[in-house]
Structures
1.
Amino acid sequence: MLQIFFPLLFILMDLALGANHAHGQEKIRIAWAGASPANAAVWVLQEKKLMQKYGVEPEIISINASPIVLQALLAGEIDISAISVAALVADAAVPARACASSR
């Protein structure tokens, strides 16, 4: 769990402290899928208000499926995602099997 928590935390903090030093509060949209310990970094950011003290207001969005989070990320609707790669790989394999069995 710590292997996922700290890298995600550092990435989010790097984005918050990056080259965008605006005078007003920046807004960042963070989406997560599935309730698991792997997403603990997102909850810690929200509960401890770690990003607000650096002038970044996070909007935490819960989406029920990793593929939908990935689609939102690719479409530019969210800035950061916390998703399971295993879930994406498993979901990607389902349509291929369904197409192969429908012949």
2.
Amino acid sequence: MSQRLAHQLNLKIYLIENQEPLVSTSGQALKLMGKSFVPCSINGLSVNYVIIIVKHIFFKFNSWNIFLSHNQAIINYRNNTIDILDGLILLPLQKFQSIDNCAVINKHIIIPKYSEVIIPIKISKV
């Protein structure tokens, strides 16, 4: 999460000790500012997620393509997998199986480029 969004959410940022450097998918180094705890409540269960806070998040439209090409990734629609690093990592593609697996927003939202937003969603009750 960017430092700007953490401040907008009034999150306290804690220092990180011995954190390995982070690099974005486009290869840019991310300047670590600390970590924060983001509370999430799901049907009364409260869970705090540890989120790494960085100075800026840079997103390039083609960063996914750069990641795929740099890691020799192959998307195979025949067997619904993504093969990364010549089979070292093999991931299944997500399939849409029912509306129960969807998060739905109630209104049209435009997200400006190079920004982050928190969007209220509705999910079906299982």
